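Pilot study result, target chain (65 residues):
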Amino acid sequence: MNERITLLALKASDSKTGWLDRQKFAQLIVQECAKVILETPVKYTEIDIMHIIRDNVKAHFGVEE
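Predicted structure:
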């Protein structure tokens, strides 16, 4: 498993029980995907398009910042 995914899983786990909150984990992954999309350098693409794509990915999964 990717180290970043492991860190997100730890962040989504309850510190007392160690149980993974699957909904929080999914939200963290979607937020991470949105961040990657926004930060991906693409030539000849306007920043507005990248924001629209990011927001669409988040909306698709029902994740709010």
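One observation from the pilot: The chain has three helices and no strands. A full batch analysis is planned for the follow-on phase.
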